[in-house]
Amino acid sequence: MPQRTEKTGIDSNIIEHRPLYIFGLNMDGERLTPDDRTGKARKSHEAFVTSNLEFLEGIDSPVANAYRNFLRTWNPEEEIENDKLLILGKNYGKSGFAFCLTGYPDLLLHNDMQIIQKWEQIYHESSSEDKKGYVAQCAVSGEETEIARIHNKIKGVFGGLATGSVLIGFNNASENSYGNEQSYNSNISMSVMKKYTDALNFLLGSSKHKILLDDITIVFWAMDTSDAYEDAFMAMLCGQSDKMSAKETEGMLKGVLESGRVGKMTEGRLQSLDMIKPDVDFYMLGLKPNSSRLSVKFFYRKKYAELLWNIAGFQKDMQTSKELRPISFSRIKEELRSPKSTSEKINPTLLTKLFESVIYGNRYPMTLLETAVRRVKTDGDKRVNSVRAGVIKACINRNYKKEEFGVALDKDNCGQAYVCGRLFAVLEKLQRDASGIKLNRTIKDAYFASASAKPAIVFPKLIKLAQNHLNKVKSPAYYSILLGEIMDKLNGEFPETLLLQDQGRFIIGYYQQYQSFFEKKETNSEMEEN
User: What is the Cα–Cα distance from 247 to 298, expressed in whole angstroms?
Assistant: First the structure.
């Protein structure tokens, strides 16, 4: 029914949906019982029966008559072993119920014409008895009509109240304007209020239309009846899809990324994804609970083809190998946290700005690079991986644009920070090969953070240490030549200090050089086979 009670006490709805009122039973562990300390279950059921029998007077339809029979014959004490309710378990109290005749699940009680007519009659009568509503021009529709004083609650937002929170509300006198109270300050008509709250509750009630970005609930929808738009959006950002298998999802993502790599999102690519309308508008709304209200963190609108192209560009920026591997937002969020902490929260402003950068193709937030570099420098053995390297590469490539880091080692790059990172990777590999065993502590554990910030202080020590390691490896000539080639690219001395973006370049140089050792092995083995 269109109006649900929001009172905290016992107050039944017409055509009730809550199990406590309908059945008069509590779920206590794994059993049903009509008893509780305050007798609320019994009182709620009695209120439900009384109000609904009164409402049904004068109505004669098959489904309404069956409902009346249910109200008169249901006895909570006799239903404590009801299999249909017991099977719900702990979900019993959270479930909502609707009524229909056996064999006709689509013909619901609340859609019966006689029920609807009776409801509208009572509703209009009660409305006319109330104080005459405030009439003004609706800010959305532009019509001169009754303005909603209190807006319906929105449910399904992560961290919000179980009973729902309002999007628009004015409770304090300091928020009133020109003597208007509560939502009369917002000038949203009753009809528009019901439409937007119903639509938002519908979207929030479906996992196909929302994702969670830390503590921000993102609701999204396309102005089209097909679910393909939302499904592909979920796959591109989250690496998951309701309609496609994991293999199909990965294939679709790689196809879109190929479009990003060649520089355009083709009409054929959209058609292959069952998206034949690239000009469809796509909306994204970010909501976060604040006390009993909801705050809007962002509201974006984009043409779908442009949106998909921007996401493909983001995924292209994140790649650190020749094999395309889509990176989800949740993975990035995890890599920005310390692995030693289970409670550390990422700054929601950072995640919001990152999301905006992805959607609009803008520069990435500066704090993203700062956070990723800090994590790499402080997280011990797990400091450098493909995701963190990808984040740093993406920030430098898009934000500074003086150089373009590829996905593979660039031996022609003479940037001093990049070369220092390469040198550190070679020195670490030399140490590992010289030891012949797994070391408890390497130069990466002892010197990585300081070498990436103050190369001139740290590298002379490491070069001296490397002389001992060269005497222990099987192929000292290989390392001597490689060290010489890299050091020749330095301008005769190590940089005194590396700023934040240069520390990022150091990390990329280190990561790409170290990964190249393993790529070289794979190439050699392939050549031997051929």
Answer: 33
